[in-house]
Amino acid sequence: MPVDNPRDNPRDNPRDNPRAARGAGRVPRGLLAVLLAPLAVGVLAGCGVSSSGDPAAPGQIAAVGAENEYANVIEQIGGRYVKVSAIESNPNTDPHTYEASPSVAQTVSQAALIVQNGVGYDTYMEKIESASPSAGRRVIDVQKLLDLPESTPNPHLWYKPSTMPAVAAALARELSELQPAHAAYFAANARAFDASLQPWLKALRRFGEHHPNTPVATTEPVADYMLEAAGVDNLTPFSIQADIMNGTDPAPQDASLEQSLFAAHRVKAFVHNQQVTSSLTESFVNDAKHSGIPVVGVYETMPTPGYDYQSWMMAELRAIEEAVTQGVSTEKL
Q1: 211-326: same fold as 14-198?
Q2: pLDDT value at position 92?
């Protein structure tokens, strides 16, 4: 792998826009004014790709991934010609309620290349970019790249197998525009990245062939795209997944249905958002354990250190397979 990544307005209705209730991407009051003031670039706490706010070296492109999985792919495609910063990478925080600090705003405003998720997941990025416009800045908004509507109910796009190949191709194009002399290098890295995803893609197909329509329960739709690609049958209604994602109380009948999935042993695994928990989700974890249902923890940002995007996705799938085939719980990677 090259190292040289209200019903009329869906945004106002939590069920139609499952990010709104959590205040996704809030920017602290006064931040826009701060953006215009001189700031020392500080350390990005929890940054998984770039450990400091040091400026890009001569010949390097300053790049930002709003989530560290995107930053990791930028690094893989750009290699030695990029200086990458990841904004969200702390597995102990809720990405939906992330608040950008002034140092983060400074880093974003100085970037020549940005990758952000969109779908209401990281709207703080758009606010920072609007407050500090740059004609030369290139922004890859993954929602727009994939031509997804604002009403897309599940914002966790990086679990969709088709997402990162599209991101890698877009990165190769944008980086080549910024540094035409290295276009062949970026294109080669993108091809190597695509090839490195094949073990995960093959494993998804193999799981679906060997364990078709395996029933599972979930808390949130974090890994739903991957579960769907693996042919898994998610028995948890999306209504309760969206409520939990939004931090709102689910309907009693939905909560009772979730509990019944464990008590009646209707599922072979419980896929739990390890990164964002509550008393309700912990009660579901306990119910699953009490019923002997293995629990698999999944994440919204890539666990670091020790993983790149490819190995993270493979580890998540392997944990699900071990739960289904061996009854093994993997609550944390």
Answers
A1: yes
A2: 62
